[in-house]
Structure formats: structure tokens, C-alpha cells
Amino acid sequence: MSGRSKSYKEVLHQRLKNNAEAANYLQAALEDSQGAFLVALKNVLDARNVAAVARASSVNREHIYQMLSDEGNPTLNSLQKILQALGLRLTIESEVLSAETQALAIEPPARREPGARATAV
């Protein structure tokens, strides 16, 4: 066997070209930490060609690199544009709450009747 083996990064980039794989990869990283998510997003962008994503998202390529750096702090707007250009989106899901967590959950404020005054306790 004289075949050249592929590096981990080559295999990862190949897998991240698939949207389902990229979405699962990003979700797992996000559940770990914000830093892990930014590294994972950089890997997805590298797999998909950062310059092409920058053009499609109307986010400057240099800004993308800056926001994904160790000191980076992407805005929600920039993140949404980049994910949309990748064919991905942010979603929010409800966690299954334990009984203890449910007891600590903040309840919405009670509705007041129109014209009623708020009273101090």
C-alpha cells in the first residue's frame, strides 16, 4: 500500500462541506464554550473558502478573521450573515427543565387591569 493518508484537517474540511455535518459540529462546539464555537466556525469557514463566504455575506474578510480571533467578539448581526451565507441559521430551543430548575424559573409578571395602579409590597 503506497497510498497517501489524509490529515485530520483535510478529512474535517471535507466533512464540513456538508451542511448537516457542519451544523452538528457547530452545535457541539457551542455547547462546549464560546471559544470552541468560534474555533469550529473558523474551521467551517476554512472548509468553505472564507473569501467566498465574505462576498456572499457582505462581511469583510478581514473582519471575519478579526471576530474569530482569540480577542474576537462577533456581533449577532455578523454571525447571522455569515451563517446565512453558509446555508445555516441560529436557533433557540427550550431545555428540558428539572423540577429544581423549574422551581427557580422566573415567572412572567402578573397582568394588571387597565387603569389599575401598581402597589408596593
CATH topology call of the domain at 8-91: 434 Repressor (Amino-terminal Domain)
What is the string of helix and strand elements? HHHHHHH
Mean pLDDT over all positions: 85
First-residue to last-residue Cα separation: 81 Å
Largest sheet: none
Q: Calculate Rg over CA atoms.
A: 21 Å
Number of strands: 0
Q: What does this entry look like structurally?
A:
- The chain is mainly α and 121 residues long.
- It has a domain at 8-91: 434 Repressor (Amino-terminal Domain).
- It contains 7 helices and no strands.
- The chain has helices at 8-16, 19-32, 34-48, 50-57, 61-67, 76-86, 99-104.
- The protein is extended, with a radius of gyration of 21 Å.
- It starts with 7 loop residues before the first helix and ends in a 17-residue tail after the last helix.
- The model has no long low-confidence stretch (mean pLDDT 85).
Topology:
Blueprint: H1 8-16, H2 19-32, H3 34-48, H4 50-57, H5 61-67, H6 76-86, H7 99-104
Give keywords.
mainly alpha; 7 helices; 121 residues; 434 Repressor (Amino-terminal Domain)
